Amino acid sequence: MGGVRYYPVMTHNAPGKAYREGLSLIDLMEMFPDEASAAEWFEELIWPVERACGHCGSVTTREVPNAKPMPYWCSDCRSYFSVKTGTALSHSKIPMRKWAIAIYLEITSLKGVSSMKLHRDISVSQKAAWFMLHRIREAWAVPPGGKLAGPVEVDETYVGGLEKNKHEHQRTPGGEKAPVIGLKDRETGEVRVSAIADTSGPTLRGFVREHTRPGAQVYSDGHGAYRRLDGEYRHNAVEHGVGTYVIEQAHTNGIESFWSMLKRAYQGTYHKISPKHLDRYARQFAGKHNLREMDTLAQMADVAAALVGRRLLYSDLTADNGLPSGSRAA
């Protein structure tokens, strides 16, 4: 595939990289001057070896002149398809150039992009922008494979507005503050997060077990749920409740700094994140954090390639999942 420069998907560099190559908005516009250049960029990422049908995976395909928006034909399943087929962008009528710009804006915005800003920046409706951003978040819906080797820090926090100043024991059931748990690997800097239904022992310990290798060093605060990890992990805790935050290597400062960033985004960009969609936003910020050492174009490539095999319908996004949806789409 010809004119568009291909930027391969990269694993993130080791923590401490002193320099990463950015991409200015002018550079972006020069890279994607038209729809054809954006479509070609996506094709090089999604089909790095050869074009494959998004319906059945066959490579027995051909280009069909004047068949847009489905310019390719699969001889095996006898279906038309495009580069969007079989990705989180399936059935979208939004041009690929606008998708590329949206990915760039999300990647380069430390606190994220609101749907109101995106709708103004790329001239789509606010509803379409909201759906676009949730489709992009599908790139981070599944955490990286494998368990963290540690040492890891584990902590839980609450995100929301109505119970902002309450301590945990004062929070009332049904309030808009919702719990999120997170782990940060001190060696790699990788973060794993999940919105959770409660902060009970089985829930918190289950998350640690799911994402951390047995026997790893685990640091936590004094939450009683973590004490029962002692037989499975090398576990040390600090008692925040008595004013202790660091005892030699025992602290949770790393994951707490991630919470600060997530809450700054909540306050400065989204203003309201409903419990219904909180997990999507939390995973988005963990995913962006884990790409932070990569050059901007490599980050964009990683996100675009991760949309393959993902699917998100508007009806599924807006369906009742038993959690409050709030009154405002961010």
Q: Which overall shape is indicated by the principal axes computed on the Cα atoms?
A: elongated
Q: How far is it from the N-terminal to the C-terminal residue, by CA?
A: 37 Å
How many domains, in number, for the residues? Answer: 2
The sequence of SSEs as H and E is HHEEEHHHEEEHEEHHHH
The major β-sheet equals:
5 strands, mixed
Provide the residue-averaged pLDDT: 83
Number of helices: 10
Structural class: alpha/beta
Strand content: 5-15%
Biggest sheet: strands side by side, in what order?
6-5-4-7-8
Uncertain stretches: 1-16, 241-246
Radius of gyration: 22 Å
What is the strand tally?
A: 8
Short recap of the structure:
This protein is of the alpha/beta class and 330 residues long. It has helices at 25-31, 35-46, 96-108, 115-122, 126-137, 201-211, 253-270, 278-290, 296-306, 314-318, and strands spanning 61-63, 72-74, 79-81, 152-159, 178-185, 191-195, 217-221, 234-238. It folds into two domains: 1-47 and 83-140 and 290-318, no CATH class; 152-275, Ribonuclease H-like superfamily/Ribonuclease H (Nucleotidyltransferase, domain 5), CATH 3.30.420.10.
What does it look like?
The protein has 330 residues and is an alpha/beta fold. It folds into two domains: 1-47 and 83-140 and 290-318, no CATH class; 152-275, Nucleotidyltransferase, domain 5, CATH 3.30.420.10. It is 33% helix and 12% strand. The radius of gyration is 22 Å and the shape is elongated. The two termini are 37 Å apart. Mean pLDDT is 83; it is low at 1-16 and 241-246.
